Amino acid sequence: MTLQQIAFHAGCSLATVSRVLKGDGPVSDEMVRRVRRAAAELGYRPPPGGGGARNRPVVGVLVPSVTNPVFAASLAGIQHRLQAAGHGVLIAQSNYDPASEARAVAALLEQRPTGLILTLCNAGTSEALSAALPPTILLNNRPVPRFPAAVTVDNYRAGCEITRHILAHRHRRILFVSGHFASSDRARLRYEGHCAAMKEAGHTPLPAMEIPFVDGYENLDLSGVAEVHRPTAIIASNDLLAVGVIAALRREGLSVPTDVSVAGFDGIAIGRLMNPPLTTMAMPDGDMGVAAAALLLDIAENAQQCRHLCLDHRLYPGGTVRMVSEER
Q: Which PROSITE patterns match (predicted)?
């Protein structure tokens, strides 16, 4: 297989094919798709030599944290799908810092990836990223005009549903504890869904308690808000934070769910191993990674149209939310 054959199949010049395959030089998005589709249809693979594995096509992946089980599951799904397609994976993390995302993406671009899969703190800040990007998929962020291809769950609806579940257990004073909304539009959407469900039921939602995502879990102090708001239930914006909430309540001499009910989001394994198991809104994190990788391959290699895939979440009732006999 020669570059000339790819050029003929794609209907372009040899120089254009060379620029696309090397990721070097100005080429329109449409021409990139045509060349990559032609290369895929003709079974082209980079020649051996010059570093071996370095010639293997790679995809850059940005996540907020590689230690969070949610993103670890998504990364496993991404790697599984891309390895099956002969692609490697480059990983960068933002540490939930919007200011560091552009630098992290720039570092990925230095490796000339064939595509990017990005979980941003807030998709609305995408304007800060480089203007010249390969095919890009948002993972966990809603699509935006610049990045119409995305794989998400409906975090707003999930926030509504977990709140309705707790309201059905006769709780009225429900506190939402979250990492900073500026660091996660997923957390913000979950809180907005919570507020909507509270208002729907005729209750005024409490202000969210926001803490740092990176180092705020282990030493969480709930004494002040517990004294002011006296919540009978607490919703954490993710399961790791829910575990931190339970530990903080125990430090205050409170039991879960006897004194305070607790719920989270994500459905990570540690929540199911707790006693009682954590009440949570389980998310298909591994499947989302597989879907994002498959969507990227479709767009980058087969010139498919950008799509927004929204996967289903589900309630895992667990045992950390109890029925209250009356408003306390």
A: HTH_LACI_2
